[in-house]
């Protein structure tokens, strides 16, 4: 990426690009959603799960997934893949990018440690591994498809 102001999300006169501002806002909203979901008590999550399943057409399949314990991994993978994609979209090519990704890996570890102390939840190294895999998938997808499409446009 070049070292021009435009490459760093700055428009004319050094102002932040409004599109970049919207992406950062979306990243922050996704981060907040992730924290709420990962740091909620087990009882609260079961109530949310039941409410969601009433309007999902896949309730039988979700019972099978929940029975196997894979739903938790799927949620972690999805949350962190989107977060990795958004972080890559916002900060790729900037000096802060490696620190942001490291902070997100540490966030995955921190939420697992916090879950140990939350009623109805438990810490899991598997969840942390899936969080990290999600970040990598989000990074890969964004670099492979999203940013290339933007560069070609």
Topology (elements, then pairings):
Layout: H1 18-38, H2 42-55, H3 59-68, H4 70-91, H5 97-116, H6 125-152
Helix pairs in contact: 1-4, 4-5, 4-6, 5-6
Name a few traits of the molecule:
153 residues; 6 helices; 75% helix; 0% strand; mainly alpha; disordered N terminus
Question: TL;DR?
Answer:
The protein is mostly helical and 153 residues long.
Number of domains: 1
Number of strands: 0
The percentage helix is over 70%
Q: Helix and strand string, N-terminal first? A: HHHHHH
Largest sheet: none
- Radius of gyration equals 18 Å
First-last Cα distance? 15 Å
Low-confidence stretches: 1-8, 55-59
Backbone structural class: mainly alpha
Q: What can you see in these coordinates?
A:
The chain has helices spanning 18-38, 42-55, 59-68, 70-91, 97-116, 125-152. By secondary structure, the chain is an all-alpha fold. The model is unreliable at 1-8 and 55-59 (pLDDT under 50). It has 6 helices and no strands. 75% of the residues lie in helices and 0% in strands.
């Amino acid at each position: 990426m070049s070292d021009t102001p435009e490459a760093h999300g700055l428009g004319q006169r050094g102002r932040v690009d409004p599109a970049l501002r919207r992406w950062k806002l979306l990243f922050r909203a996704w981060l907040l959603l992730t924290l709420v979901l990962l740091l909620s008590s087990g009882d609260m999550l079961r109530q949310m799960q039941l409410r969601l399943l009433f309007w999902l057409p896949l309730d039988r399949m979700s019972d099978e997934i929940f029975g196997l314990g894979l739903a938790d991994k799927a949620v972690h993978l999805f949350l962190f893949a989107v977060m990795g994609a958004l972080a890559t979209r916002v900060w790729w090519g900037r000096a802060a990018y490696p620190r942001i990704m490291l902070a997100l890996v540490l966030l995955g570890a921190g939420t697992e440690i916090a879950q140990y102390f939350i009623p109805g939840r438990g810490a899991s190294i598997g969840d942390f591994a899936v969080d990290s895999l999600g970040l990598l998938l989000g990074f890969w997808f964004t670099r492979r498809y999203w940013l290339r499409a933007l560069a070609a446009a």
